[in-house]
Amino acid sequence: MDDTTSALQRGVPSVSESNAARLVAKLLASGELKPSFLMRTLHQGQIDSFEHGFAALLGIETEQLRRILYFEKPTVAALACRGVGIDRSAFLTVFGLSRHKRQRPFTLNEVDRTETDRVFATVAKAEAMARIQDLVTKAAS
C-alpha cells in the first residue's frame, strides 16, 4: 500500500496498477466490464482494478475517478455509482471500502446520507452519467 501510494503521489503507476489497467482494457473491449466486477475487486482488496474499472465504466480517466471518490462530496460519488448502475444498497459499501483502502475518511454525516439517498431516489442513470461528465469537463477547464 505504501509503495502504491508513493508511486501515485509521484505520478508513476505501480506494477499492480499497470496490470489492473491492462485487465480492465481487455474486459472493456470484450464487453465484460460490469458493476459486479467493481464490487468483486473492491471486496477482494484489489483497489487498482476497482478504480480503473470504475473509471472505464464512467468513461473518464482514473485520476478523475480518484478525485470523485476521495476528494469530492459524497453526493458526487453517489452520482458516479448511480451512473454505472451501482444501486443505493451497495453505495455505502463502495464508499466505505474504497475510502478505507486509500486511507480517507469514510463516514457519512446525516446531511450526506440524506443527499446521497436523494441522488438514488431522484436521478436517473443517464442523468447521473451526464452530470459526472459535466463535472469532469468543468474540472478540466
Architecture overview:
Mean pLDDT is 88; it is low at 1-5 and 7-13. α3 (35-43) packs antiparallel against α4 (47-58). The chain has one domain. The chain has helices at residues 2-10, 15-29, 35-43, 47-58, 62-70, 74-84, 88-101, 110-122, 125-140. It has 141 residues and is an all-alpha fold. It is globular.
Keywords:
single chain, 141 residues, mainly alpha, 9 helices, 77% helix
Total of helices: 9
* N-end to C-end Cα span: 32 Å
| Largest sheet entry | none
Mean pLDDT over all positions: 88
How much is the radius of gyration in Å? Answer: 14 Å
N-to-C order of helices and strands: HHHHHHHHH
Strand content: under 5%
Helix content: over 70%
Please provide the count of β strands.
0
Shape, per Cα inertia axes: globular
How many individual domains? Answer: 1
User: Spans with pLDDT under 50 lasting ≥5 residues?
Assistant: 1-5, 7-13
Helix vs. strand class: mainly alpha
